[in-house]
Specification:
270 residues; mainly beta; outer membrane lipoprotein receptor (LolB), chain A; twelve-stranded mixed beta sheet; 4 helices; 13% helix
Length: 270
């Protein structure tokens, strides 16, 4: 596996939406005689994730996230960059994402037919036709543009299954308190060398509170951190919220495909 490229979000319009998402770590086989093995993914962890998946299948919702992720500078040293991400969802075919960070701002509009990426600083945008589901749009955008979609697994049609794809071990390690409320602290591992920690509210919704990803198989073991807030399942967005209206002076530009095909790895831009 080649090492992920951690480019800054402002590098290109496509790069602006690169975001880290799934994870795991290498599993070592047991040696010698041992008692019957416990399930690789415990029932408690599976139940919490299934609850999360059911909640995130809500017809429409919004949330915010603050992220801190790694990118490599020209000398291949890992540096950190922060972003605030606002997400508005209306299933099955509407999505709005607003990103503001150390390297500027980007807006994403998906109206069920067209994906638009807009950079307010330069007043430039790209527009491409895409399928009529959020999942189909994400696959098309990844194929044509070459970025890993932000929080892709949470927005899929099967959030818990998407998050668990490739995971070989998972459990709840303890219960913690976040902002005065109990939360389950989960660990998930996905070979070869991706490790995830996920904090879910300990209630019927089982909402994501924190996400910490470590790339054990990458030199330097870089990481990605996200904290979630402002989950709202009572929003009532209109079509206008997902439709891009070019501001005065905005210019449409051509979005170039990646220079070479990349091997997709959950949570990393190759």
């Amino acid at each position: 596996m080649s090492s992920p490229r951690y480019s800054t979000i402002g590098a290109t319009v496509a790069g602006l939406l690169s975001a880290t998402f799934l994870i795991g770590a290498v599993m070592m086989p047991a040696l010698g005689a041992s008692p019957p093995a416990k399930p690789a993914i415990t029932e408690e962890a599976r139940s919490a994730l299934q609850q999360m998946g059911q909640t995130l299948l809500g017809k429409q919702f919004s949330f915010q996230a603050r992220t801190l992720r790694v990118y490599a500078d020209v000398d291949r040293r890992f540096l950190h960059i922060g972003h605030t991400v606002k997400v508005l969802v209306r299933r099955p075919d509407r999505l709005r994402v607003d990103i503001d960070g150390d390297d500027g701002a980007t807006q994403l509009f998906y109206d069920g037919k067209t994906l638009v990426l807009y950079g307010p600083a330069k007043k430039e945008y790209v527009s491409i036709p895409v399928p009529d589901t959020i999942g189909g749009m994400i696959k098309e955008a990844e194929s044509r543009v070459g970025f890993d979609f932000p929080f892709e697994d949470f927005l899929s049609s099967t959030p818990d299954k998407s998050l668990m794809s490739g995971v070989t071990e998972g459990k709840i390690v303890n219960e913690v308190t976040i902002d005065g409320a109990p939360a389950n602290h989960l660990t998930l591992f996905q070979p070869p060398g991706l490790e995830l920690e996920l904090w879910l509210t300990k209630n019927a919704q089982s909402l994501p509170e924190r996400l910490f990803i470590t790339y054990r198989s990458v030199p330097g073991q870089p990481n990605f951190i996200a904290t979630f807030s402002d989950w709202n399942f009572s929003v009532t967005p209109t079509d206008a919220d997902f439709t891009f209206q070019p501001p005065e002076g905005a210019k449409q530009v051509e979005l170039k495909a990646p220079a070479a095909p990349r091997t997709k790895v959950k949570g990393a831009t190759q």
